[in-house]
Specification:
Elements lengths: L2 H17 L3 H40 L4 E8 L2 H11 L5 H7 L4 E7 L2 H13 L16 E2 L5 H10 L8 E7 L10 E2 L2 E5 L7 E4 L2 E2 L11 E13 L4 E13 L7 E3 L1
Parallel strand pairs: 3-4, 6-11, 8-10
Antiparallel strand pairs: 1-2, 4-9, 5-8, 6-7, 9-10
């Protein structure tokens, strides 16, 4: 066994020790971890952007850069699991949200103490007006362009209530739901937040009577209404689609969606 194989084996052994031998549970937990980490990575990118804009603004006003460096990190899933286990908490997404406050972080270093207060004050004054979405939520059918899928997925899963009762149309690949194989599928896209290592499939549960006839990973146009209900995929409430129309589609120009 070479070094890389041993490393992979050790990781798998640690994960099984922490999460048990139930393969379905293990797969589901890791799947939820991937989605959670995608959200943390997206949040960090947003915060970093705010600091970078502030730095540019203050450098123009003061003829120098008050922020010396900006760094960020998100804990690896195995580190998160080990910490939860050490603290005596279950290894679940809910447990992470309730018990850990260091999953993700941004470190900003300023050259002078006064700069810390200037940056903090300007950050506090930044308005909370959301950036306009690249699609019209008030349209009879909310049409999502291929290049906007990642943003759409993040928005509809973070704020599902504002999509309740609306009809959406988007292109995605067919994925199966392990526990609901009849009359349901999960159209979606592979999404990358910052690098190839974090690419994961992001799909939405969708009711469709002819779902069993869809080929896995085939591309389809989906037109569907949205309701907000409990689903095991979300471990709570989230957007559930009911297909109005599903048609074959050409693959998206970019196989992986990005923000």
């Amino acid at each position: 066994m070479d070094t890389q194989e041993k490393t992979n084996y050790d990781k798998q052994a640690i994960i099984r020790e922490l999460m048990g031998d139930d393969e379905d549970k293990l797969f589901e937990t890791l799947e939820n971890f991937s989605e959670m980490l995608m959200r943390y990575n997206s949040a960090i990118r947003e915060i970093r952007t705010k600091f970078e804009v502030l730095n540019d603004d203050l450098s123009l006003r003061n003829s120098r850069n008050p922020i010396e460096s900006i760094s960020s990190r998100v804990k690896k899933p195995i580190s998160i699991a080990k910490k939860l286990k050490r603290m005596g908490y279950p290894v679940t997404v809910e447990s992470i949200r309730d018990n850990l406050n260091d999953v993700a972080g941004v470190r900003v270093i300023c050259s002078f103490v006064d700069d810390i207060y200037s940056v903090a004050e300007m950050l506090a004054k930044q308005d909370d007006i959301e950036d306009p979405l690249p699609f019209d939520l008030n349209a009879p059918v909310v049409e999502i362009r291929d290049e906007d899928y990642a943003l759409f997925y993040r928005d509809i899963t973070e704020e599902p209530k504002k999509y309740a009762g609306k009809t959406v149309k988007f292109k995605g690949q067919v994925a199966r739901l392990r526990r609901e194989k009849e009359g349901m599928f999960a159209p979606g896209r592979f999404v990358m937040t910052c690098c190839e290592a974090d690419i994961t499939f992001m799909g939405l549960p969708c009711k469709f009577a002819a779902a069993s006839g869809l080929a896995a990973r085939s591309w389809v146009w989906v037109t569907a209404t949205v309701e907000v209900k409990f689903h095991t995929l979300y471990k709570g409430v989230g957007p559930i689609l009911t297909a109005v129309n599903v048609q074959p589609a050409e693959p998206a120009e970019q196989n992986v969606a990005t923000f």
